[in-house]
Design brief:
The structure holds two protein chains of two kinds.
Chain A (H helix, E strand, L loop, with lengths): L4 E6 L2 E9 L13 H15 L1 H7 L6 E6 L4 H4 L2 E8 L11 E4 L3 E9 L3 H16 L1 E3 L3 E6 L13 E10 L9
Antiparallel strand pairs in A: 1-6, 2-4, 2-5, 3-4, 3-8, 6-9, 7-9, 8-9
Chain B lengths: L5 H10 L1 H11 L2 H11 L3 E2 H8 L3 H13 L3 E5 L2 E4 L1 H15 L2 H9 L8 H8 L7
The chains are: A alpha+beta, B mainly alpha.
Chain lengths: 178, 133
């Protein structure tokens, strides 16, 4: 696994479909049949319908983003926000069925995990690498990014997923991401 | 809002610091602002204001005198007070400037939670071991 990279002062705007609730009623995590899988299917259908629009708006029409946002009452409800879609340059006017989201401007760490090792590699970054670098998650959301050149489906253990975590200095003396 | 040329704005201010200060001074008191807001709904008697603003007689009289002196309020009849057009104008400008201020937007942004995931939520992605929680 490559060392996580620090992305400075980035604002990400997304366009896509949104879900709020417990996304694992229909099926368990990392399944095409759960509510997140259904959300992707809905997004893909709309993407075909509005292909020209997306071509104009998106910064890269091939990279898929999945946003997971934990609300403050998640511990009571088990419900949270999921958005799937594309990164866009501009969000002036979009088709009605789509939602747009301008995430807060922040630094991120970006790293890549293999499908079969995603939990261990993610845990290493989140539990070990970040504290060692003196940085902490800034906002309670995370982004997964799917590049069709490297992501070949959930069943392929060599599939790769990129992760983006918004970060801040935990301890300015220890933080070394200048 | 009409645009005043910067040069005019500067010269207006420079020549009238004292006047501006006395108006701002009259405005910058919570009881006096409360009186003005109360008079926005119509004229009031001294007794009505005293009851509403919850002030002693002398304190209320002193506040009213100060506001009359800079024309924020009027005394159109004996024992009756109303908001002067200037007073209403100042209130509206203050409210508009305050509502649109960058500082308020900044404060709202600061309300945005800056926190890490809960362990339970992070566990979905990063394989937290239940026994370690």
């Amino acid at each position: 696994m490559l060392e996580p990279q620090i992305i400075k002062d980035k604002q990400i705007k997304l366009l896509g479909c949104v879900f709020f609730g417990n996304p694992f009623h229909e099926a368990k995590e990392w399944s095409y049949k759960n509510e997140i899988g259904n959300l992707w299917i809905r997004f893909m259908k709309l993407s075909k319908k509005y292909a020209n629009f997306l071509e104009k708006l998106s910064s890269s029409s091939t990279l898929g983003y999945e946003l997971h946002l934990e609300p403050a009452d998640y511990h009571k409800t088990n419900r949270y926000y999921v958005m799937v879609g594309l990164e866009i340059r501009d969000s002036e006017e979009v088709p009605l069925e789509f939602f747009t989201k301008s995430l807060p401007r922040t630094d991120y760490i970006e790293f890549t995990t293999q499908m079969e090792k995603k939990r261990e590699q993610g845990a290493y970054v989140y539990q070990e690498w970040m504290p060692q670098k003196g940085i902490a998650q800034r906002y309670p959301f995370i982004l997964q990014r799917y590049d069709p050149n490297r992501y070949r489906g959930l069943e392929d253990p060599s599939s790769e997923i990129d992760w983006l975590i918004p970060i801040q200095r935990n301890n300015p003396r220890r933080a070394n991401f200048e | 809002m009409s645009r005043i040329p910067i040069a005019d704005l500067l010269s207006n201010y420079e020549n009238q610091f004292e006047e501006i200060k006395s108006v701002l001074g009259a405005l910058s008191h919570d009881k006096r602002l409360q009186i003005m807001l109360s008079l926005l709904t119509g004229e009031k008697s001294f007794r009505e204001l005293k009851k509403e603003i919850k002030l002693e007689k002398t304190a209320l009289a002193s506040h009213l005198t100060q506001m009359i002196s800079v024309q924020l309020i009027l005394k159109p009849a004996y024992n009756t007070y109303s908001l002067h057009a200037d007073g209403e104008r100042f209130l509206r400008v203050i409210e508009q400037a305050f509502r649109q201020s960058d500082l308020r937007i900044k404060k709202d942004k600061e309300k945005m939670e800056t926190r890490q995931f809960s362990e339970k939520f992070a566990g979905q992605f990063f394989g937290y071991d239940e026994s370690s929680q």
